[in-house]
Amino acid sequence: MFTDILSKLMTYFTYPFVRYAFIVGVLIALCSSLLGVPLVLKRYSYIGDGLSHVAFGAVSVATVMNMTGTVLLSAPVTVLCAVLLLRRGRRSNIKGDAAIAMVSVGSLAAGYLLMNRFGTSANLSGDVCTTLFGATSILTLQPIDVYMCIALSLVVLLLFVFYYHRIFLITFDEEFAQSVGIAVNSYNLLLAVITALVIVLAMNLVGSLLISALIIFPAVSAMRLFKSFLGVSICSGILGVVHSTLGLLVSILAGTPAGSTIVVVHLLGFLLCSVAGWVLRECVS
Prior knowledge:
Elements: H1 2-12, H2 16-41, H3 46-64, H4 71-91, H5 96-118, H6 124-133, H7 143-162, H8 164-172, H9 174-179, H10 184-206, H11 211-223, H12 229-254, H13 258-284
Helix pairs in contact: 2-7, 2-10, 2-11, 2-12, 3-4, 3-5, 3-10, 4-5, 4-10, 6-10, 7-10, 11-12, 11-13, 12-13
């Protein structure tokens, strides 16, 4: 049985889009899981869900305009929204979570309305489902997607390696970080921009509705096992990569949608980490 499974996997890996899906999946999982730690601790995790809906709206506009590269529109629009949400959240009477919710549902509704009214595709429901859940989008992955993910992964890794202590301070005590000369607003802005780019690149893999799971689940799962910021960050990165890889493998072997399968594997991983964390605490006490 194991030989048959291995043979089937080797056959699938002869297709370029499968190799691209695994490379993109691993890199996106690494980026999102590392970013998820400060986002969850700073209670910014909901911004991932909001920006994913903004990306859906931008992709809808690009589709209606018959643009070949939707990322050319969705990336700048999503980044701009991330910047505006971060700045307006401090200066507006509307609270941050309310602003994100308004932008989220507004973008989702506007995107679907545009595709429904002006879309030229004969399979509108299929296009919407693919964009929302990433059902068949891995078939469209190209080498350019891999190159962009590699570049973004290097940026995220370098950010965490060289600016770990600053990220740690900003995550737990912004006022103290500002008092010692750290540009808190600039780091928060950089975090929002990178998160927006990760979301745009992850849409082909898991769809716009499921992207926030890649940000939240690894970080929350790691927090069930470790208490230190460094331990949680490393564990989150490992869990994100392992769970996404397992999800892709199951998706290929079982013929299930990649995005949904990856998220379900993350959910099961969170449950296992919760049980393991409880057992460890009981043993220590």
